[in-house]
Amino acid sequence: MPSFRHQVLTRVIPALRGSGEVHGAEAVAQLRRDLLAAQAEADPSPPARVARAFDVRSSEASGLPVAELRVPGSTPVRTVLYLHGGGFVSGLDRFHWRYAARLARRLGVRVVLPSYPLAPAYTWKDATPPLLDLFEQLAIESPQGVVLMGDSAGGGLAMLLAQQVARRPGPQPTHLVMFAPWLDLTGETPGTEEAARRDPWLNLSKLRIYGRWWGAGDPPDREASPLANDVSGLPPTLLFCGTRDLLHPQSLALVAAAKNAGVPLTYVEGPGLLHVYPILPVPEARAAFDRVEAFL
Questions:
Q1: How far apart are CA 158 and CA 35, in angstroms?
Q2: Domains along the sequence of the chain with CATH
Q3: In this predicted structure, what is the pLDDT of residue 22?
């Protein structure tokens, strides 16, 4: 049974989420304007507590703003390339920063957090080339390799990156870790409508709009959806998803595809748990982190 704190969160999130379904051209246009305004005002810098306790460096790599976080005085030989969620329309938030700090402290790694270009102004075609270049640069700098990790939209992007790297010669990611990844931009995976009714957080009509923007078309480019691509080249993979998650059917579809392709994938399902619960401030996240630590 979900913890009391988790149950409270499931009641609070609908109130914080704001407006519901989005239908009609004017509503979509207003959504676009609102998102662009929010992006212009967003502050991607780390919370003060993280900035004080960790060595945080900002730079530009492969044309992207990139933050690097590590324990002060450490010289990590392993890197986690963490791709943040946010529906491809929102940037880094405090939950991503806090999770990155925990990774750096517990695993002794450096965590690299790129601010990739966001929809609706940009698409997957703008984000993937510089992220591929960034991965190759990090792989050269990391004697013990690079882990690809991400949540929600970032989880799907991490998998897409792993698929594209697999087609190239050279270094490959050592592991792939995903929290409730967005793997099908169309939102048409069987079972999605039913899952949407159980999810107090994600909104299916908005998800489909964001998918068209990020996927550069209606329907989105097939190549932009990891589930539509070859999964056989994935590294050892750890996948988490709760059952009160609109994206739950996509995780199940990946589990089946990975099994058919012989991919070493470990799936951890959270009965009754929310979207991206492993990075939320709930007790269930502690057990999830222990699984990540053991896996890596």
A1: 23
A2: 4-12+24-295 (3.40.50.1820)
A3: 84
